[in-house]
């Protein structure tokens, strides 16, 4: 009787997966139709904005039972919802006047549609059967941490140096849009996670890590760099707090509302520090889900999208991809937003650019498809295994998602998959050598 019931249940599950996959396929068709059939007129921005919001909410609901994926798509979802509402439905009501001309062009629609195409393709990779049966969802409490004082203290020395060298002090206390593009800020996050991995039961190292997290957030906020502060807050939560609590969509929503309110409060205060308390609160509430960080970055995406239609961008895009491997310190193409600003008239921006726009820069919508398939495949691989490397990636991908989704994919494909891999393997080999030497010494002692 039990075998019959099991067979019936398996059949029901299989049928439900087929139906759910059909829904995902229909959503993909809707995205294609939106891209192809909705004309590139400013009046259609609200429709595109609504579709963006719909896809974002659906992806969050879909991955709700996987903690790391939920964090990832909640962050991407917040960014997309802010764009869909503020830059789509409201047509950029809060934006700076110098942005209006380009926002009223067809390039705005190309950029917004790219988000829809991206969301629908990534969604296809995250099938319900994979999420429920194969995707890894380990808490940090389940990670096998090691104790290597040399790695821990050398790492601590490096990140404390980085925090002093990672910002240009000339930008301190300015009232303009600030987001640090220095890769050292991201590398500090990577090194912080490595130190945590190699400081198990090391009270001094963990105390210094906690203090560093506080210092990092305080220092970033003093420059007005909310995105950098958010990276550390999220990493600290995952490593030290989140392992004791189970995350839910309800908690995510509450955290998001708090984060949005705090971020907007800081933005309003920096714009006018002489406002009275009532005006400060009123202006903050009026912003709703609008985020100036997201909106400015979205505008940079529009300029990057426009460049593809103005000139041949194949070689600059190839140089940009090359910078993932060799680094971008000596390349003008490593930061496409800055490259666009300096080489194209009327395409001024203040930095950033969505993940999708960087691939659009190379091949238009075909580039967006390539970038979406690449990310979907990466997520599918990384979250299917629980080995030494993939567990580390599962932490860093959502933590650095603000950077690689909002400011360009370099943070994902270089900072995480190249820099952190080299760093982790180096630490792994060093730790093994130290342990083998200690074992050899113990054996010699026993022989004597």
The radius of gyration over CA amounts to: 23 Å
The fraction of residues assigned to DSSP E strands is under 5%
General form: globular
Mean pLDDT: 86
Low-confidence stretches: 171-177
Written as H for each helix and E for each strand, in order along the chain, the element string is: HHHHHHHHHHHHHHHHHHHH
Q: How helical, in percent, are the residues?
A: over 70%
Give the beta-strand count: 0
Distance between the termini: 66 Å
Q: What structural category do the secondary elements indicate?
A: mainly alpha
Largest sheet: none
Tell me the number of helical segments per DSSP (H or I, 4 or more residues long): 20
Protein name: O-antigen polysaccharide polymerase Wzy
Organism: Halobacillus mangrovi
Keywords: Membrane, Transmembrane, Transmembrane helix
Transmembrane segments: 15-38, 45-64, 70-90, 110-130, 150-169, 181-199, 211-240, 252-271, 358-381, 388-406, 412-434
Explain how this protein is built:
Keywords: Membrane, Transmembrane, Transmembrane helix. This is O-antigen polysaccharide polymerase Wzy. The chain crosses the membrane at residues 15-38, 45-64, 70-90, 110-130, 150-169, 181-199, 211-240, 252-271, 358-381, 388-406, 412-434. This protein has 448 residues and is an all-alpha fold. The protein has a domain at 1-139 and 275-407. The protein contains 20 helices and no strands. It has helices at 2-37, 45-62, 67-89, 100-103, 106-125, 128-133, 149-165, 183-197, 203-222, 226-241, 249-271, 277-287, 292-310, 314-326, 336-343, 355-363, 365-382, 388-399, 401-406, 410-447. The chain starts with a helix and ends with a helix.
